[in-house]
Amino acid sequence: MNPALPLRRGMGHLGERTLHSLEGVGDFALLAAAVFRALGRPRLPRRAIAQQVVAIGAQSAPIVSVTALFTGMVLALQTAFALSRFGAKPYVGSIVGLAMVRELAPVLAALMVAGRVGAGIASELGSMRVTEQVDAIRAMGADPVQKLVLPRLLAGTLVLPLLTCFAVVLGVLGGGMVADLQYHIAPSFYLQTVTSTVTVPDLFAGVAKTVFFGFWIAMVGCHVGLSARGGTAGVGRATTRAVVVASMGVLISDFFLTKLLMLLPTEVLLDWLRRAAS
Asked: pLDDT tens, 171-211?
């Protein structure tokens, strides 16, 4: 047996995987371009968008609420325990508020939505793909991107920032409950430390990231679903792949988005917010 044969096979397999990955990136870019072209059309599918807002936002609120509440509680529990060594236990609200607003609420809300919504979108569109319903839509002269992808994308992009704000409130309240019941920190003092530490740019930095997170989760779910092959087994693989890719994308992009937002001066953010409000 030629000793170089296993190496050739390994290199060939690596080349096939690389080409397949590049092909997937290209298909993703083409789908994104088709979505932006659909956005420029005069009539948006408002009814379909409203249905997806309910499916993505309202139905995801319970799992996001439970996650945020108990995250704030355990964060306050651990933070107060650590700060008690330095005599700074009363200021647990500052750390809980800042951590929830800038990092934990946006990322955890995005991960919960990626697990629930990303899998749901990939499963639904994958089933339509393998049963040739997508081809039937094209045969009737309709655009699958306009009919299937655009409502889910707009709903995910609009809803996730709202869920994040909801998660921030619940996380801070959960931390306040633990601070009051476990460590006897007055709720008024706890809220005072939160409001004196967390600023409007902090809230903006946390919520702004979720706009990209919502876009990414919906796009990955739609792309993977529309690329499903191989019957019901292919739909199952597409669902798993959508959750993994969406979750990893959220975690990786969170670092770069956080770094980018930290480079923006506070004065620029405040000026931008004033102009947006006016």
From this structure: 999 999 999 998 888 999 999 999 999 888 888 889 999 99
In angstroms, the CA 275 to CA 106 distance is 24
**Pair 88, 189: CB distance under 8 Å:** no
- The predicted-structure confidence for 147-172, as pLDDT tens digits, reads as follows 888 899 999 999 999 999 999 999 99
Tell me if 174 sits within 8 A of 247, measured CB to CB: no
Query: Hey, what's the torsion of the CAs at 86, 103, 71, 175, to 10 degrees?
Result: 50
C-alpha 194/C-alpha 188 separation (Å) is: 10
Cβ within 8 Å of residue 133, ≥6 positions away? 127
Distance of CA 117 to the CA centre of its chain: 10
CB atoms within 10 A of CB 3: 6
* Other beta carbons within 10 Å of 246: 27
Structure tokens at 93: 């609200």
